[in-house]
Amino acid sequence: LISPEPEITVLDRDRSLDEIIVLACDGVWDVLSNEALCSLLQHRMRCTDDLSTVCNETIDTCLYMGSSDNMSMVLVAFDPAPRTDPKCKLEDEKLDAILLERAKGGYI
What distance, in Å, lies between the first and last C-alpha atoms of the chain? Predict the structure, then answer.
C-alpha cells in the first residue's frame, strides 16, 4: 500500500557521534548499503565542503553502479561531520583536471 503519510521516527541525537543525516530515494539505497554510503560521504566531505557537490557526486556514483530508480538526496551535516582536508581537496582538484582534459580529447 502506498500512502502519502510519512513514517516518522524520532531519535535522540548523540552529539559526539552523529555526523550527518541522509534523506534519499530508493535509487540511492538500491545500490549502496548504509555503510557504503556513509564511507563514500565521509570521504567526499574531506575533499569538498560543498554538500550540493557531494550529493551530485553520490547520485552520479549510483547511476554508474546501475541504479535505474528515481534519485534525489539531501544531506544535513552536524558539528562533528568530516572537515575538508586541504591535501585531499588538492588531490581531488588535480584528478578533476586530468579527467576534464581526457574528456576534451587531450589524451593519447
Answer: 54
